[in-house]
User: Fold these one by one.
Assistant:
Number 1:
Amino acid sequence: MKSENKVLIRVVQLLLLFGLLVNGGVAFGAKKKIEAGSVIEFPFVPLPGAKIYADKSRSPEARAAAVLAEMTIKEKLNCVSGFKHFYSPPIERLGIRPLYFSDASQGVHIREELNTGLDQSTAFPCTLALAATWDPGLANQFARAIGEQCRAGDIAVLLGPGMNLYRNSRCGRNFEYMGEDPFLAGQLVASYVAGMQSSGTMATLKHFLGNNSETLRKTSDSVMSERALHELYTPAFKAGIESGAGAVMTSYNLVNGEWVGHSRTLVDELLRKEFGFQGLVMSDWHGVHNTEKFMHCEMDLLMPGARNGELEKLFADKKFSEKDLDGKILRWLTAFFKMGFYDRPQKDPSMLAKFPEHEAIALRAARESIVLLSNPKSILPLNPAAYKKILVVGDAAKHSIGGGGSGAVKGYSRVSVLDALRKEFGDRVTHSSEPGESEVRSADLVIVAVATSDAENRDRAFELGKGGAGVAAKCAALNPHTILISQVGGGYAMTDCYDKVAAHLFALFLGQTQGTAIVDVLMGRVNPSGKLPFTIEKQFADSPASVYPTVEVAESFPDAGKSKCGRVEYKEDVFMGYRWYEAKKIAPLYPFGFGLSYTAFKYDDLKLSAKTISGTDALKVSFTVANTGKVAGAEIAQLYVQDTHSRVPRPVKELKGFKKVMLQPGETSKVELSIGLKDLSYWDESGHGWKAEPGAFTILIGSSSADIRLQGVFELVK
């Protein structure tokens, strides 16, 4: 059968299937016709039955070794780098098919030039918004849904989740990460990985390590202490590894003078030996500067591929051995056999029927991520009868707002803030990009929408300029019934307006259901429960990241060529995020963990299971949270630990537990958490390990890092 006919039949089959699946009145597949010849497919074919590696009863390690035993040296040289830019290397003679890698963070990123047949994917909230829910259970469902959409599109490896910490509020990729705290990020990452891989799609932890800004991201050197590396920048990666993540992607930058893409210190010693990771380690695309060093490091795949026969030449010149090749191939083959990629089709068209369920999960995540920053006169929730003339200000209200770059997702059936407001209030809503004074004064209600433009490969300004907080301040000066809605990828300068507007809804990039979620909160159908997973500073100069990379000569960075290079010194050490502001006594605009509600919560009855514990004990902590208001709501109770007396500088407190509790009016719930020796420890650089000093510790329970309601003291003894 001619290839054109095969494609035509496949298109007809897809359209018939898509026509049966309707979500919100839009049939899947109806928006964009798949053009003949545009679909790249490597269909599943069972492994040759006579081969040892086809035997599912054998271990993944044994099956990978059996494949390796039959490979020629030419095949091996082709199997340590990518194939067709976004695929794993095939071994056609042995029946090993290439597998597709797709980008992530806001759902499945569809590449038009490499269409595997997935016509569209749900635009989920960004992962930073997911972090604002503080809900590991939701993270599991969220990731599983994205993994199922990967299955629908024959995507084997999702290049996410991202988990670099929010050190720098200007970082263009903060929206892809999970906030500033390693404990919060670790809890969410562990659940995300478990959810993703339960779908049959492999998760990739990225970007390992120290990619905390996008300025000079491919040539900058993140200079940090051993202690900061272990206490802040690796715990989320370790949590993902312990949850079973199949892959890790290295970052573009250097760490302490060594390119991560071929760092024996970070990959061989830290990732492989200390953390025990045995899965696939790939470079970021074009993230390796020295192929020979890559071959002598326990990296596995050079992505997107080797250049100009360099591997063959290096091998011919005896710059690396066949044994070096074997180790890499064994690791990635083993990881893929563990996932079952060669035993079943990755593509599962039945997953298309779950898209409505996925969209519901995306909407839930969007609703629960919204943070109410201010509501001083209780204008929210809105009384619809009170507003006959509603003015919506700002172009951000008209558009679908999301992060750009490899993590961008188009989505479908997108609902903007303006769309949702018009659905709610009809012709009572008017819109103006730049309204006049009389227009603002005459409105019963003014809703100002602002947005940031965040994307990989560039950082953004902290001040938003013409369309920023100043617009909200001007409107609020003319009309006291002014509400600000932020649709952003992180914090920004809002000191001009934060205390002037009647209310402020802080919405991180919320995906295709953003307008619906925001209006649901405005109207009180949803009580906001999101909490900030990062600190919002008053001014960027307050941040420890305010000193940007200093450009240095390329010669000081081996393998950099003629590129400009930057040195980023993490001089704050372990005092990053709320740890910095508390240690330096700098008041932020909004603290880590902050978020208001339409109801009120009372904390009481703190109990510790013991006054004294040893290193082998777990301290059980219990307390009650009561809803003292008139509407149902969810509270995120936070547990921090303070080392009362330490011989080394330590943060004032550190998050070590949290729980989200849903309560009806008048309802009280008992919250139980526990901490162990690791939660009391710091990284001891002299002994290169974790250390907890005997002495007094304080348990701090609160609604945010700055709103502590309960305290209790216990002692750690030898």
Note: The longest strand covers residues 633-643.
Number 2:
Amino acid sequence: MKYIPRHIIHPFIPAVLLLAAALTGCSAAAAQQDQAEATPSNALVIETVPETIAPLGLEGQILPGLDGVDLPDAEPAPEYLRVGVRHEIVKKVQQRLMDLGFMDNDEPTDYYGEATRQAVLHFQRQNELPMDGIVGNTTWDALMAEDAKYYAVSKGTEGEDIKRIQQRLYELGYLASADQVTGNFGDSTEAAVLKLQEVNGLTRDGKVGQQTFNLLYSDEIKPNYLSYGEHSEVVLAAQQRLKDLGYLTTTPDGAFGQDTVIAVKQFQARNDLVVDGYLGPSTRMLLESGDARPNGMMLGEQGDAVSRIQELLSKYGYLSSANVTGYYGEITENAVRNFQSRNGLTADGLVGMQTMAKLTGDDVRRAAAGSTAGGSGQSSSSGRGQSSGAGSSGASGGSTTQAPPPPASGSGVSALISAATSRLGSPYVWGAKGPNSFDCSGFVYWCLNQAGVGQSYLTSSGWRNPGRYTRVSNFSDIQAGDIVVVRGHVGIATGGGMVIDASSSNGRVVHRSLSQWWANNFICAWRIF
């Protein structure tokens, strides 16, 4: 049987119905005339209003005009919706899959790609339908039903989506080891889900349904591992390692305080982990391995870790307290160079392991008198131009402070957009961070780092509050280079009302309009440059 969704009506049906009505009216009139001739003169006669009969022309009956009738002109849907198909009805399929939690949120398109097929497969699996990734009559009816089920998985389920859930459970400390990330929802995964639900105040059913799934990547998730306030030998060992790698600026003491949180976040950011500030299995495993990347800060970086370094530079007289801003500008770079020169290190202006070790050690040489960078009457120029601060570094009688560069579409924006453009057409793959395939947040992460911005990987929900950029609250104020955050999705604005993003509905990285869909789902944008 040919698959044509019920909302599609053939354009000739209204005309056929009008013709049938007209012919019926003609037959009825003739029958009334015959009845009148056969009725006696004294019989009760009931007068009826004659029906209007459409006039006849040379080529037959003239039907009423259809100029004002709204008839669908779309081509009929194909018998089956499968990978490669383009049709307007695919938008309805994608939107429904997104609403039910089977597909990442995105602007629906008319293209049935691999991401759509995977979502359909998961829907079919949950509804005990043949898993072919194709939408026919049966799958269509189940998908569009008013009581269609929201995405949910439980013990016995297998698939790539289960592996992703298990990986997050492992990162949060609910699965004990990496070898439990198998893609098979077994006893250990069920126990992990039950524990997560208990810790986070959800109904304990061992299933990953709407509430549990949404919680997994939310800011409110409570992990099952070492976090702020803990005090133990395990914390002490982690602190020592963080200090050795140049992340911790205080003396290890076994207490998981704010300095440790900052150090852990910086470590996670440098090592492509989910940045949450917790010592979970993934973070601890990498921290203890030989693959851990040491800390290294440079011009242009921002955040609490930068503030800690600036505070130490200020403590030893290398930086004015007014320049403890959390932004690593030229004034901070000059202060670091001065510190390195005075303390027998290579004066490269970068804060690496050796510089951090010296800066946090006990034998620091203080700055020479009157050499505080950014201080009163001091020049902050390093021969490469002025700091992008609030005042001129040569202004007498006042101190120059440093701040992130003002919003501008300069070289940073150009580099970001160039990096994004270079990956147009790359396939969308959930969780991929490049360089050849991406999901939406992985694409933003890769492009920013290619443009020289030391940004850690954040999920789309994590981009709601990264805490280091200028927030843009009005959709109409978006500029080229801004990171646009919508419900469940992120992209990079390119100017002129356009955006580049890794689109699940298109199945690839695309350059498209910031349409009404983006406006309707808009949360905020972040100005990087």
Note: Strands lie at 56-57, 60-61, 470-472, 483-486, 489-495, 498-503, 508-513, 522-527.
